Amino acid sequence: MANQNKKIIAVTSGNGGTGKSFLTANLALELYKQGYHVVMADLAFSSAHLHHYLGLPYPQATVRQFINIPEVTLDKYLIDVSVGQNTDERLSSLKLLSSASDVYSYKMMAASERKRLYKAMSQLPYDFLLVDLPPGSSGLQQEVLSFSDTVLIVTDSSAVSLESAFLLIKKQIFYICSSLFKKNKEVLHFLDDAFNPQSGLNIDRVSEIVSAVQKLDKEIHQKIIKQLSFLNWVCICNHAEAQEGLQISEVFNNLIKKYLDQKISFWSTVRSSGYLSSSEKKKAPFLINAPDDPAAVDISAFAEALTGQL
Ligand SMILES: Nc1ncnc2c1ncn2[C@@H]1O[C@H](COP(=O)(O)OP(=O)(O)OP(=O)(O)O)[C@@H](O)[C@H]1O
Ligand SMILES: [Mg+2]
After folding, report:
1. Residue 297 domain-assigned?
2. Which of 53, 204, 256, 288 could staple 260 via S-S, CB 3.0–4.6 A?
3. Which residues pair with 7 in a beta bridge?
4. Residue 62 has what DSSP assignment?
5. What is the C-alpha separation between 112 and 75, in angstroms, rounded?
6. Is residue 300 part of a domain?
7. Which ligand 1 atom sits closest to the C-alpha of 18?
8. CATH number at residue 17
9. Does position 283 have pLDDT exceeding 80, yes or no?
10. Taking the CB of residue 34, how many other CB atoms lie within 10 A of it?
11. Which residue, by CA, sits nearest to atom 23 of ligand 1?
12. Does residue 103 lie in a domain region?
């Protein structure tokens, strides 16, 4: 049975194709190898392909069935991925909740259905729940990020990837602030303008926005400060060498500190793997088949740092 100290990690990115699904699958495998109970939730819906990185056939049991059949509990839709070497459930386990056969988007779910899904996900037995998301920052990502303990942003070293990661953090801050202000239209309009560079308000830092909110509503200001303090961002710069990753992390950290009043609690790099294309072709989990590959070594080191931090 998993312990009570459960952690939810949302895996996200500003732009597409940065390596979220590949890293989610292999990070989960590494945590499982370390002896943890791990559940992966693939919430990419029509573009869900986490099963691919785990060497699994196309999943039949999916999120949509859980939504449609309220009598069946979510654990019945989990696919067991415990890869061979461990048959003792008490030691560790690895399970997948997929949305691969769901040819619809999250938008087709009512808010109450999404709420039921999120609640059921968080109540599953696990030490780590890793949620693989589509890129960007729309409703689904914002909702999942808001109940996660840690948000893992996967970037590459391109300006596009870093810029969109910056925007993702900014939008999440806006989401948190505006969800607390839903009923106060005056403040909501202020926030809309403050987060919009075209508004002419000339406020370019989150700390200034939050201070301005204090003048409008002291109580909500306190709530915002509290909610923002819960944010735990970690980052992987994928396809990068350690030195390059370090330089990028310094620049990125300075930017988000200055403008968004946030920090990345830790930053890792994962090198490119040459082995990957053949591993994918063989439908075999990468980390199991090539544990000495530079990318696998980096993922294992990241998993160790992550469990040390959480
Ligand atoms: N470190 C790496 N070395 C080599 N190839 C990699 C590495 N990381 C990811 N890839 C490859 O990059 C491609 C995109 O990876 P992946 O599918 O994980 O991206 P994603 O962020 O999940 O994409 P999407 O935004 O569409 O969900 C895949 O072919 C994957 O095998
Ligand atoms: Mg993906």
Report:
1. yes
2. 256
3. 128
4. B
5. 19
6. yes
7. 21
8. 3.40.50.300
9. no
10. 15
11. 17
12. yes
